[in-house]
Amino acid sequence: MEALLLGAGLLLGAYVLIYYNLVKAPPCGGIANLRGRTAVVTGANSGIGKMTALELARRGARVVLACRSRERGEAAAYDLRQESGNNEIIFMALDLASLASVRAFATAFLSSEPRLDILIHNAGISSCGRTREPFNLLLRVNHVGPFLLTQLLLSRLKTCTPSRVVVVSSAAHRRGCLDFTRLNHPVVGRQQELRAYADSKLANVLFVRQLATQLEGTGITCYAAHPGPVNSELFLRHVPGWLRPLLCPLAWLVLRAPRGGAQTPLYCALQEGIEPFSGRYFANCHVEEVPPAARDDRAAHRLWEVSKRLARLGSGEEAESNEDPQPEDAEAPFSLRSSQAEDPAVSEPYPASQNSPDLSKVIHRSQIKAEPKTPAS
Ligand SMILES: NC(=O)c1ccc[n+]([C@@H]2O[C@H](COP(=O)([O-])OP(=O)(O)OC[C@H]3O[C@@H](n4cnc5c(N)ncnc54)[C@H](OP(=O)(O)O)[C@@H]3O)[C@@H](O)[C@H]2O)c1
């Protein structure tokens, strides 16, 4: 009997530890009123993306749900309108696996939406499922598609500064290791998929680092966010049916709910005063140090160049908007088009916060690069 009680006590203690360290997420805070601002959230029909979109909508933003399935996207838009009481939630089709779809989305968005204040790259996959592509599908969906989309929407972000780009990465980036000779090779088997997932999440962190360098002084800042271990369909959808009844309750107990997972991406999108941390990686609503592979500026630069090629970004298209979709298999570089950004409504600057981070502790990015061990906020 005593042994039983001791066992139960230990289990409870272990769960309390797990709960407070993993399951419970700190609330994001940040700008409370987003009226007049527009946000794009990719993969917003489920999991973390849906909860991220909900919070943005509750705060009054116009939210574009960029999803690959019209049915799931429209259903999510309906749910979110009901839950938030905000009617400014719309679905727009985006399949990150297809460069043509990314371009079509950008064209549709630029021609219909005068503002872009917050771009959240949330969509992601952990497996290729049954799809067989002649390229690395995980890298395409998790990194190359978002890379291209960012480039195509930069002009609109620039007209709405201060604006932000958030890339939902993962702690899995710590296991990543980019092999530039095989970056786009097709991924076969679960082992390779897990490796490719970690690599794609490392690519997210390096992309954000390089993007911040390119955008310094423009008023656009960018952040990589780890949502924590979240109870979503990301990994569960690939679990065999017979295992789900066992795993689902366990996942519910020890993993964060999607709403908790949305807190760090939201923090990166909304928290005032974190601009000096542009280019950095956040977890649990705090800036976090990353391993050497994720702060390797040469690798970040090389990845940028390779990504331009993989995204078939034409010379001169970088940081410009291209208003026309192009065929995915086009070999010729895309032509440079002058982008005539529409006149956005006047943008309110981010209001000064009551609880901004102590900026005396903030270290400039160039110093952060030199002093990687310095903790912040
Ligand atoms: N769950 C975790 O523990 C965890 C941990 C660290 C990081 N993350 C990251 O968090 C992000 C969100 O994941 P989640 O956990 O919320 O998983 P999720 O519920 O599976 O959501 C993923 C979303 O991405 C969309 N998506 C997948 N492929 C797409 C494509 N080709 N084009 C456009 N959208 C696509 C999915 O759409 P469909 O519904 O149509 O498939 C879905 O809406 C991912 O980037 C993931 O890597 C998750």
From TrEMBL:
It is found in: Secreted. Its main location: secreted. Keywords: NAD, NADP, Oxidoreductase, Secreted, Signal. The keyword NAD applies. Signal peptide: none annotated. It holds the Pfam family adh_short. Residues 368-377 have a biased composition (Basic and acidic residues). Residues 317-331 have a biased composition (Acidic residues). Residues 313-377 are annotated as: Disordered. InterPro entries: NAD(P)-bd_dom_sf, SDR_fam. One of its GO terms (molecular function) is oxidoreductase activity. One of its GO terms (cellular component) is extracellular region. The keyword Transcription regulation does not apply. Belongs to the short-chain dehydrogenases/reductases (SDR) family. Putative oxidoreductase. This is Dehydrogenase/reductase SDR family member 13. It comes from Chrysochloris asiatica (Cape golden mole).
